[in-house]
Write a structure and sequence with these properties.
Layout (H helix, E strand, L loop, with lengths): L1 H25 L7 H4 L11 H12 L3 H9 L6 H26 L5 H9 L1 H34 L3 H17 L6 H24 L24 H9 L6 H11 L8 H26 L3 H25 L3 H33 L6 H18 L4 H30 L7 H20 L8 H22 L9
Length: 475
Amino acid sequence: MTAFLIALAALIIGYAVYGKIVDSVFGPTDRETPAIRLNDGVDYMPLPTWKVFMIQLLNIAGLGPIFGALGGALWGPSVYFWIVLGTIFAGGVHDYLSGMISIREDGKSISEVVGIYMGPTMLAVMRVFSVVLLVLVGTVFMTGPAMLLAKLTAIDFKIWLLVVLAYYFLATLLPIDAIIARFYPLFGACLIVMALGIMVGMFTGVGGHAMPEMALENLHPQGAAMPIWPLMFITVACGAISGFHSTQSPIMARCLKDERLGRPVFYGAMVAEGIIALIWAAAGITFYDGTAGLAATLAKGGPGGAVYDICVGFLGTGVGATLAMLGVIACPITSGDTAFRSARLTLADWFGVPQKEWGKRLAFAIPLLAVGGALSQINFNIVWRYFSWTNQMLAMIVLWTGAVYLYRKMDSKTVSLIAAIPATFMSVVTTTYILQAGEGLRLPTSVSYPAGVVFAVIFLLLYLKSTFWSSSKVS
C-alpha cells in the first residue's frame, strides 16, 4: 500500500508544482479566446469551466487508463513508475501544449497545428494519421462498452453495438451543448464513484486481498519474452501519455473562456486520468493476488472480464458494482463519441468546410461512422495493439511540435526542452516498439534497442538543426 500512496501523492504534487512551471513557461494571457471570438453555436461556444474540465476528462479517459493499466499491471508494481513519471513530465505537458497552442491558433485541429509549426509534409501526414487514429479510437471505444453492457445485461453484443453507434451518430452531429455538455456530469459522477469505490475496497482489504509493494523487476508471467522496455510503455497508453488526447484538446480549446484556465483543464485532466490508471493498475495486481491470476483472467475473459470481476469483488453485486461498471462503460463511450466528432472536425479543417449546416456535418459523419462500424467486427485485441502504437506515435509528433512552438514563441529558447526531452524519450519508445513488436518488424532486442536510440538521436538532431543550430530564427 505504501508504494501506491507514494505514487498517488506524487501525481498530486506533480500537478501543483510541475504543472505550475509548465503554465508559467507558456504564459497564458487575458486575450479573447476562440470560444468567444468565433462562437458559432455548434463547436465554438463558451462553456462553464467545470463542464469544460469534465468533458476534457471524459474525452481522454476512455478505455486507456482502465484496459491499458490492467495490461500494464502484468509487469507488476513497476508500472507505477511509468504512470507517475509519464503523466507528470510527458502526458501533462503534451495535453497542456496541444490545448493551449490550439487556442492560440483559433481552435484548429491538431493536424493543422502540427502543419503550421512542422511544415507541409507533416501537415499531410498528420491529416491522414489523425483521422486513422480517431476512427481506431472510436472503434475501440465502441466495441469495449458493448462488450461490457452485453456481460451486464445478457443482451446480445451486436444489439448494444448498434445502440452505441446510434448514440455516436447523434453526438457527432449535434451542437456540443446538446448532448455532450448535458450528460457528461452524470457520467463523471459514475467515473468518480467507480474510482473511489475500487480504491476504498483495496484499502480496506475486501476479500482478503493485500496491495503489493514495489518490486523493481519484471513480474510478467511470460518473463523475459515480454520485456518491460518498451512493451509496458506502449501497453499503458492513455494512462501515462496519449496522442489521442491532442485530438480532443482542440474540442475544448473551442469552449474555454479564459487561457488561464488551461492548467486545470488540460494538465489537470491528464493528472486525473493518471490517478484513474494508477487505481486500476493497483486493482489488477491486488485483486488477483499477483500477475499470474490477472494474466489468466485477461486470457480467458479479456479486459472486460477483469473489470467486471474487480468491480463485483471489491464492491459487491449491488448498487456499488453497478455504478462502478457504469463508470467504466461511460468512460470509453465519452471518448468514442468525441473521437468521431474530432474526426469530423479534422476533415472539415482539412477541406475548409464550415460545419454550421447539418448537411455539411452529415457528409463527414456518415462515412466515418460506417468505417468504424465495419472495423468493430475485427478482433478487439488486434485493433487495440495498432491503436496503442499509433496513439504513442502521435504523442511523440505533438511533443516535437510543442517544442518547436516554445522555441519560436518564448523569450527563453531553452524552455522548449520541457517538450523536447519527453519527445526524445517517446521517440525511443515508439521506434523501438515497432521494430520489435509482433505487429511490427519482429527484430530481436539486440537490434531494436540500439536502433530505437539511433532513431531518437536523429529526431533530436533534426530538431536542434531547425532551432538552436539554425541561423534563421522564426518569431
